[in-house]
Design brief:
The complex is a heterodimer of chains A (about 575) and B (about 160).
Chain A lengths: L3 E4 H11 L4 E4 L6 H8 L5 E4 L3 H15 L3 E5 L3 H15 L4 E7 L15 H5 L5 E4 L6 H13 L6 E6 L8 E4 L18 H13 L3 E5 L1 H5 L3 H11 L3 E3 L14 E4 L6 H9 L2 E5 L5 H4 L10 E6 L13 E4 L2 H13 L11 H14 L17 H12 L4 E4 L3 H9 L8 E2 L10 H11 L5 E6 L9 H7 L5 E6 L4 H10 L16 H7 L3 E5 L2 H13 L5 E6 L9 E2 L8 E2 L8
Parallel strand pairs in A: 2-3, 2-4, 4-5, 5-7, 6-7, 9-10, 9-12, 10-11, 12-13, 13-14, 15-16, 15-17, 17-18, 18-20, 19-20
Antiparallel strand pairs in A: 1-8, 21-22
Helix pairs in contact in A: 1-2, 1-6, 3-4, 3-16, 7-12, 9-12, 10-13, 14-15, 14-20
Chain B lengths: L1 E9 L4 H11 L6 E6 L5 E9 L2 H13 L3 E6 L5 E12 L5 H6 L3 E5 L3 E8 L1 H11 L6 E4 L3 E4 L8
Antiparallel strand pairs in B: 1-3, 1-4, 2-3, 5-7, 5-8, 5-9, 6-7
Classes of the chains: A alpha/beta (about 575), B alpha+beta (about 160).
């Protein structure tokens, strides 16, 4: 069979198609014009024109997180590349498989400070899993193959392919052949856990009287939710999820403790502090979880399953570290338990379950706020989330931005399935919500996709309302409008004597309903508690239309519980008045 | 605590900056760094000395192993190893005696009417001591390569 002679630009598109890519998000510019011409000349890979490169990477990220398939963004050199950086850093911190193709100036101009030149490999180096500078057109197929392999396997992460303009020149063609296999000698991620470690883990699991399963984003990424549920049920262990791990274990299950950490539930944080065993799966004991590592869960034995060896014993010393994929290792533990099922004793866990119920009873979140008219007359942000949950029956994909609204959504929406909760947990990127929702809506065109946001965050990528119009994306934007940077203000209230330095807008906010309408979308304003549920209904009744639901919420509301810095997980503010220490 | 870590990495542009960048990014120290291509031209061997306790060294080796361009990492301090560093020192011709050079195991590698270039080889600690002894001879210029190392057992850093 004779091979086909094609240009570097065509080879790039063909390679993406070979990787199963159906959709890319991007923004054209000088250095990628050959690539954009190649996009025009084919019909396998659809291109979505965003309004800012940050939006392109967040959209690709949202697509990846919701679908499990890698997301792809194409940006031009210089400012296109630097605009993509926040998106790449977001994907890096949350370990999501995103491939970013950046244009670069012609090879001969590199290093000469030419127009729209930026050292993208250098600028992106600390925030990528790996990166490639393409040096000849013939390398494109193997580099694309490697990039997708690296981005999607092991601990996933973003990969940058920097392509100088001359590499994609249509004047130069070569024999295109896409590699079937790729071998990278220095990169062989392990999947299976060491059998000896699995045995040691099982021994501890069977001995525990006060256990907690603490699972994170790794379980979602590795599609290990069903194994997690199976193991938890088998052992009758309570489960807590990190912000990144919500949905891995059903949010409405009675054995679910809710989220843990900085704004975790009272019962989850108390259970973590007082337990005698932690089984951590695909979570990384980061500072928003452990609080002071020296005071973290001192009496517990710790088992930690993670695909990344560097995550093990990085912050907290682990008794039984297991390197491997969450899915595979959980499966191995279930198998091993199967051989010793006679040793599983649910009875001995009873006092622990009772203790947890007592904690929940005492200071658990109130999930019935919606029925109570707020005393101050102003809508509570938590009520908006509860109304959203009621209206969508917990079935919607929820993206969020960063701040109080994000925490309220994480606390009050019960995520019963994985990949339904899409947020920037690691980097904490305001502006992530709307563009990531676009990616989710492209992956799931027939599902309800909701962006829970605040009036601060939404303005960081609000230009994407135009993209939503162009591609007819019926996203529901739920804006918890407290006319302030709520989380900043909360910290200022708690730690800076209520001095609100640059955290309020002083009547400078736009009319969001009019703004949405000017982009051709629908908008609804809600000011009164009595109107909330009806407006929520109306919002979701408008199928096929983007609706901007702008809800005025109580600006005095704080997110609780909240861990007290420098102390242990049991040391929480439970309200403006009540502390646990 | 000083530790010596050696690694093999892909001999290609960008690989070294990833290794060095990792250290600044994660707040580790580099005391010395030495790198050259190996007999296999696709690989470079890098040796660095760094400071940190057991936990830090463990993180450093794990993080280095995560870099796609890094093929193999060996913490030389795990077992016995030989460390050698080369130092070149320049003196004005009259400022140092042949006897002193001989006593310190130096080797004259260049000389003319004005100056002497002398080579010293040893562990970094030995060279520190040599420098102390040379202070009174007023060296004009000193250059050190940084330490290189090889393990003293059959565990090899090869692929």
């Amino acid at each position: 069979m004779s091979k086909e002679q094609i240009s570097g630009a065509d080879a790039l598109l063909r390679s993406l198609h070979e990787e199963g890519v159906e959709l890319v998000f991007g923004y054209p510019g000088g250095a990628v014009l050959h690539i954009y011409d190649a996009i025009f000349n084919q019909d396998k890979v659809e291109h979505v024109l965003v309004r800012h490169e940050q939006g392109a990477v967040h959209a690709a990220d949202g697509y990846a997180r919701s679908s499990g398939k890698p997301g792809v963004a194409i940006v031009t050199s210089g400012p296109g590349a630097t605009n993509a950086i926040t998106g790449i850093a977001t994907a890096y911190m949350d370990s999501t498989p995103v491939v970013v193709i950046s244009g670069q100036v012609r090879s001969g101009l590199i290093g000469t400070d030419s127009f729209q030149e930026t050292d993208m490999i250098g600028v992106s180096r600390p925030i990528v899993k790996h990166s490639f500078l393409v040096q000849k057109a013939e390398d494109i197929p193997s580099i694309v193959k490697k990039a997708f392999h690296i981005a999607t396997t092991g601990r996933p992460g973003p990969v940058v392919i920097d392509v100088p303009k001359d590499i994609t020149d249509i004047g130069y063609t070569f024999d295109f052949e896409y590699p079937k296999e790729i071998d990278i000698r220095s990169y062989k991620p392990v999947k299976e856990g060491h059998p000896g470690q699995i045995k040691r883990a099982v021994k501890l699991l069977l001995r525990a009287k006060k256990p907690v399963i603490y699972s994170g984003g790794g379980v979602i990424q590795d599609n290990a939710s069903s194994e997690l549920i199976k193991l938890a049920k088998l052992l009758d262990f309570p489960v807590t999820n990190t912000l990144m791990g919500l949905g891995a274990y059903p949010g409405s299950d009675p054995k679910f403790l809710g989220m843990l950490g900085m704004h975790g539930t009272y019962e989850a944080n108390m259970a973590m502090h007082n337990c005698d065993l932690i089984l951590a799966v695909g979570a990384r004991f980061d500072d928003r979880i452990t609080n002071n590592p020296d005071k973290f869960s001192l009496s517990a034995k710790k088992i930690h399953i993670d695909i990344d060896p560097a995550s093990l014993s990085k912050i907290i010393n682990i008794d039984v570290p297991v390197v491997g994929s969450a899915k595979e290792c959980l499966h191995q533990i279930i198998e091993e338990l199967g051989t010793q099922s006679h040793k599983i004793d649910h009875e001995k866990l009873e006092p622990w379950h009772q203790q947890i119920s007592a904690w929940k009873e005492a200071h658990g979140l109130n999930h019935n706020l919606l029925d109570q008219k707020p005393a101050g007359g102003k809508i509570l942000p938590q009520q908006v989330i509860q109304s959203l949950y009621k209206e969508t029956k917990g079935e919607a994909f929820i993206t969020s931005d960063v701040g109080q609204h994000q925490m309220f959504a994480a606390q009050y929406y019960f995520f019963n399935k994985p990949r339904r909760w899409i947020n920037s947990g690691g980097l904490g990127t305001m502006g992530f919500g709307l563009p990531s929702a676009m990616g989710v809506q492209f992956a799931f065109p027939d599902s309800d996709v909701v962006c829970v946001t605040g009036e601060g965050s939404i303005q960081m990528c609000i230009q994407e309302l135009s993209t939503c119009l162009q591609y007819n994306l019926p996203i529901k934007i739920i804006n918890l409008n407290n006319a302030a940077l709520g989380m900043v203000k909360q910290w200022q209230d708690m730690q800076y004597g209520g001095r609100h330095s640059s955290s309020t807008y002083e009547n400078s906010l736009p009319d969001f309903v009019a703004l949405a309408k000017s982009y051709g979308h629908a908008g609804i304003k809600v000011k009164k508690y009595e109107d909330l549920e009806l407006a929520m209904k109306e919002c979701f009744a408008m199928k096929g239309k983007l609706v901007f639901l702008d809800v005025d919420v109580d600006p005095e509301e704080h997110v609780y519980p909240m861990l007290e810095a420098g102390m242990s997980m049991k040391d929480m503010h439970l309200s403006k008045e009540i502390k646990t220490w | 605590m000083k530790r010596t870590v050696a690694l093999l990495m892909e001999n290609q542009s960008g690989a070294l900056s990833r290794v060095v960048g990792l250290f600044s990014q994660r707040g580790y120290n580099i005391e010395s760094l030495i790198v050259a291509a190996t007999e296999d031209p696709s690989l470079s061997r890098l040796t660095m000395t760094t400071t940190g306790d057991e936990k830090v060294i463990e993180q450093i080796t794990k993080q280095l192993n995560k870099l796609i361009d890094v093929v193999k990492v060996l913490d030389l301090g795990e077992s016995d190893y030989v460390e050698r560093e080369l130092m070149l020192v320049k003196f004005a011709n009259e400022s140092i005696t042949r006897e002193t050079i001989k006593k310190l195991n130096g080797e004259i590698v260049f000389e003319n009417n004005e100056l002497l270039n002398i080579q010293f080889v040893g562990s970094s600690e030995e060279l520190d001591q040599v420098l102390k002894n040379l202070a009174s001879s007023h060296p004009l210029e000193i250059v050190r390569t940084g330490a290189s190392g090889i393990s003293s057992n059959l565990k090899t850093l090869t692929i």
